[in-house]
Amino acid sequence: MKVAIFLTLLLSVAFADIWTNCGSSSDDLTIDTVSITPDPPKIGQTLTIVATGSLSTTVTGGSAFVSIIYDGFLPVLNNTFALCTLANQIGVKCPLAQGPVGFKVSQAIPAVAPSGSYGGKIVATDQNGKEIACISLSFNMSAAKKVHREAIKVINKF
Fold first, then answer.
1. Cβ atoms within 10 Å, residue 113
2. Once rounded to an integer, what is the mean pLDDT over residues 84-109?
3. Distance of CA 18 to the CA centre of its chain
4. Where in the chain are the domains?
5. Which fold has domain 2-157?
6. Judging by beta carbons within 10 Å of its beta carbon (0-12, 13-18, 19+), is residue 92 exposed, middle or buried?
7. How far, in Å, CA of 11 to CA of 36, rounded?
8. What pLDDT, on the 0 to 100 scale, is given for residue 13?
9. Contact 142, 109 (CB under 8 A)
10. Parallel, antiparallel or unpaired: strands 131-143 and 42-43
11. What confidence tens digit (pLDDT) does each residue in 29-86 have?
12. Which helix (H) or strand (E) holds 150?
């Protein structure tokens, strides 16, 4: 479940105004549209992402390397995941067929996630180890006002 939460967050920020394409023109995934609500993501709120794109080839497997760093030095996530497992977690069936692809996913961002600066990289490869996509991330995330109010209530109880 932690992986799904982080990947939801990563996908959301990857397609907002806080990402850069670190891949090449030979990458197999082209993103056409992305809708993120709320934009930017907020701690303690449900994030919904709708995305469409196109694959230039069928992908039967592969991996996704995800590295996220908080506040410039603290690793939050640094792992490699099976691409089809991740796809299945967001309702996309593997193999991923050549042509149009799309998904819609909603996930709560935990209220315990720290506010601050995040950076990272996502590199997806296919079953042959060929890069499908590469995304560099740099974003700030803060708590929603409701989360701040709830935290103050808890602190005041002590």
1. 20
2. 87
3. 12
4. 2-157
5. Ganglioside M2 Activator Protein; Chain: A, (2.70.220)
6. middle
7. 9
8. 46
9. no
10. parallel
11. 987 776 777 777 778 888 777 777 899 999 999 999 989 898 888 998 899 999 999 8
12. helix 145-157
